[in-house]
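REVIEWER CHECKLIST
Item 1: Sequence provided? yes
Item 2: Single chain? yes
Item 3: Sequence as submitted:
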Amino acid sequence: MDTTNNTTPTVLDPKMQMLIRNKEGGYNFRFRRSQLWTENYELYRDVIQTNRLTQRQSVHIPLMKMELRTLLKDLDDMPSIYFENLDSDKQKEVFLNEYWKYTTDENNIEIKDIVDTKQQFFFGRSFDQMQIIDGLIRFTIIDPEDILVSRYTDPTDIDTARFLIHTHIFVPLTVLENTPEYDQEKIKDLKLWYGSTMGLIKQQQNKLEFDEKQKRLADLGILDAYAPVLGETYVELSLHFCYQRNPATKEEELYEFVEAENRSILLEKTQESIIGKTADHYWRNHFAYNSWADDIEMQDFWNDGPADIIRPANQILDVWFSQLVENRTLRSFGMHFFNSNLEGYTPQTWQPIPFGAYGIPIPTNGDIRQHIQKIEIPDLTESIDEMKYVQEMTERATGALANQQGALPDRQVTLGAVQIALGEAKERARGTAKFKVKVWEQRAKKFLKFIEAAPDKLDAVKIFKKGRNTDAIYNKTIGPNDWKSELGYRVKIWSQNDKYSNDTKTLEKMNAAMANIPGNPVLTEEFRKKILEFADISPEKVVEILDFEKNKAQMPQIGPDGQPIPTSGGGINPPAPAQPPVLPVKPATAPQMGAV
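Item 4: Structure as written out by the authors:
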């Protein structure tokens, strides 16, 4: 971050000075982590820095990649989220959950969840931003190196920060000119400044920083991130969210400032006026950002991550492996002392060839062993055991055991011991999943606040759904009025691992109940329903299967004479009518999705 006089005007207004002080304070608070993050990333990407003493060979043991990918493999998938309507309006509940599903599909949430988890491994903490763009709520994973927060933020709650700054937003100058919400007079001043010598230097610097930032994001897995636009003037923007006293409400609330190049404030508004109002004025004191970590400590917001555990061990292994490779090379080709008093002899390096013979001058009646001697190079293969010890110690520290990577133990251990070790490792992964579930709960709640605050900014969308007891696909265009509710909604969330564990225990208990209360139709139906849900059958199919079982039970039984057996009431129960589809709409004519 550059806040010197090279990029700032001579005279600053008080608000601009306040923003720069916040930026410097947040940067100084986070600076100590930047070099460590770079080393973590380089080790993951197999980038080796050689030197003359310890790392002479450009070789690398991919311990960082192995451990992190093992942790990522065993970590739970994105948790399941369901919104319950507090007015008990099931139709609105269906519509809102279908809209949530549409939003997650459009945002490619499952892939972003993986990137989010991977980012937490690298940096110890990950961030995301929510905003409405083109009529739809968008989720964006934010690079932690682009976020600055106040020093006294509660690490368990990002909304306790006195300020939050999103830096390194590079935007073409032409885009700013076409944004009417920005102060166009300030943009004209920026254009004049970019025409100066210092402005041209900063313009080139912004282009280089933009390209490097996009390249690193692409390396993290975002395939379409690297898309620089050449030949344009890039302006570095920062979004400042900080508390100011609102003259209208006489209370402190969050303001959003759009600041350019540490020189100009292009926008200053309350966050509530930008997003929208809710009944509880939620956006006056909550950021549209979320953050999570799995090694939280109250003393430091910028906590460690799994990569920080692996980094020292990986660096040690690379040094030892480099020395081992060089040792093997030197032992293979050999090194020699020679008699430097031999006249006319200048030693040279010969190209080794099979059956090669190389002559040196030896005095008459001299002994070659008295004039040249091989240097004894000790064997370093015993360091392999030490390297294995360091690797095993790292595996125990991170919980990513070799067995989870598909490697078999080389010691004689029982199958039970291996299963216990793997079980303990999975329990540690579930420990991380708890923090992940919590941040998804926060995201779901802020999603509800977005659709409550800004219904006029959301486009209607077309959803498709298969009806009950039929293969026909139905469609309906839904919008905010279809799920709007007086009492609102609450979030139900569960991780896949927890759901599996809880379902297993529930089935065991229900089995015991079935054994003690046989033939109870209510208990039998509930047991069947739980079995079908445990088998990952969709809710619609569950209803269809249970309805079929009910109809089958009510069908008349046929006697030996081929005639139906009457029921105890003297009649024959007709089959139950088929249930109508959840969405009472006409069949789809064309299976196309998109906003309407």
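Item 5: Key structural point noted by reviewer: The mean pLDDT is 79.
Item 6: Recommendation: ____
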